[in-house]
Structure prediction request, 247 residues.
Amino acid sequence: MSAEVEKVVMPPAPAPVIAIDGPSGSGKGTIAHRLASLLGFHVLDSGSLYRLLALAAQHHGVALDNEAALQVLAGHLDVQFQQNAAGEAVIILEGEDVTNVIRTEEMGRSASIVAALPAVRTALLHRQQAFREQPGLVADGRDMGTVVFPDACLKIFLTASAEARAERRYKQLLEKGFSASLPALVDDIRSRDNRDINRPVAPLKAADDAIVLDSTQLGIDAVMERVMREIGQLPELKRYLRNGSAA
Ligand code: DC
Prediction:
């Protein structure tokens, strides 16, 4: 009698995720993109989904407090994330290039308003989780480490004072040729922080197992250095570094 050996096929391990959460202007987008390019990972800029929903609501005449209509709109958002010939990210909403339109202060404000609605967050949850693909994902937002990817293998919470963040935004706007008022930007950032921190669902907060970095006094290179040190201590991430070693 020959003993039959049953083959057990293990499901593949899910792609590793690095979650980078924090308030507006903390530099998390820049860090997320740099990390993704060093590791060869995908990127999720989750804030862009809330900004896209706010813009779609404007296009369709949906009020920012109409939770039921926004839920439907969020479930049917016709969005494509593409790259142009120069390798830059391009976002197409309902056939229109909205890459720059969604980056205005007004869209940031409207995004924060629609993001406070529980039904909207539920409608966008699976769309965000679908970005988790091999070889891995760097996800930036407010609730990446707490709600969307609670099993992320590295969670960074990047913060900075409201004044420092407003000043960075002020410089960016001037460099792009826009006029801006620094006190108005500080006010705007504070009220957006308040709304994001105090909403009942998925508020902006560090996960219990997140590493909190304050970039008020740190340049982006210094923040990258700290994050790379953490990656160097995690074999499941370190192996993806193109040169095999953490900086
Ligand atoms: O990161 P951002 O500034 O593009 O985000 C715009 C708004 O979207 C932000 O004020 C709050 C909301 N947001 C959120 O609630 N949850 C996320 N994961 C990302 C953004």
Remarks:
- The mean pLDDT is 93.
- The radius of gyration is 19 Å.
- The chain has one domain: 17-237.
- The first strand starts at residue 17 and ends at 21.
